Amino acid sequence: xxxxxxxxxxxxxxxxxxxxxxxxxxxxxxxxxxxxxxxxxxxxxxxxxxxxxxxxxxxxxxxxxxxxxxxxxxxxxxxxxxxxxxxxxxxxxxxxxxxxxxxxxxxxxxxxxxxxxxxxxxxxxxxxxxxxxxxxxxxxxxxxxxxxxxxxxxxxxxxxxxxxxxxxxxxxxxxxxxxxxxxxxxxxxxxxxxxxxxxxxxxxxxxxxxxxxxxxxxxxxxxxxxxxxxxxxxxxxxxxxxxxxxxxxxxxxxxxxxxxxxxxxxxxxxxxxxxxxxxxxxxxxxxxxxxxxxxxxxxxxxxxxxxxxxxxxxxxxxxxxxxxxxxxxxxx
Length: 332
Known about the structure:
With 332 residues, the protein is α+β, with helices and mostly antiparallel strands. The chain has three domains: 6-64; 78-220, no CATH class; 231-331, Arc Repressor Mutant, subunit A (Orthogonal Bundle). The chain has 17 helices and seven strands. It has helices spanning 8-14, 16-20, 26-32, 36-40, 48-62, 78-86, 92-104, 136-153, 207-214, 219-223, 231-240, 249-255, 260-269, 274-292, 297-303, 309-320, 324-331, and strands at residues 6-7, 45-46, 111-117, 120-126, 159-163, 183-184, 190-195. The protein has a five-stranded mixed beta sheet, covered by helices on one side. Strands 1-2 form a two-stranded antiparallel ribbon. Strand 3 (111-117) and strand 4 (120-126) form a beta hairpin. The longest helix has 19 residues, at 274-292. The model has no long low-confidence stretch (mean pLDDT 91).
């Protein structure tokens, strides 16, 4: 139930390279249960597993792990071979350097670099040569390298800052799913900043765990949100423990041993609110059940804390641009 849905923007953006290549993806979308109406609704959401399957299918049909956004294609299997090249390194720094060296052997590959800045390390991406109007490949590369590094050492690498070489895009409010840290836009290069202490950590993975990891990667790395350590993330976890009982802000504040005013202020600093987090969870629970047709609309309304189905209908349309009935019809 804690699965966070994916904004339709990312599915539309992922298909941009396929359109550029002249690939007709209508049959593919039909197979995945993603309707064009759903895809073209700006506020609509899709399930993480649908998004992961979409990426995997696009990699396969285009035979390009850059999905048509790079200066040149990256044949399927390149990412896996890079992972095999670094899996026996003794620590994270050597693994990342070997992975970046691997990609530097391909002249048309996007350039990434690792540099020290005092106690911090910056992973930078030169995205100037990319055809990437929606910044899909830039975002994906940063997310993949961050999450790959975290997987290698068996713990999440906490990001201190994420910088982007472009102004904040329209879908920038979705970045808390990808980069739960302070964001800076319109910089010379896109980059991630994290503490250098992670670099000396040993790799906890091996060939056996890598085989399982590669069965669904890197699609899974992009389809799941970053379960960060921000206050917003903590609240999502608390709220999702029991969706049949929706605690109020005062109860949450008491649980966290802070005042309601302090809780509101911290959430405001993170660019969100208690009501917004609660609505996101209700939206995602509703979509979960609408896709599976396991509950009636009345039952889903009750599950998401609405006493009246009409109030649920109005809220769901506000969240996604579609009524619950219309959304369910798109999924069947």
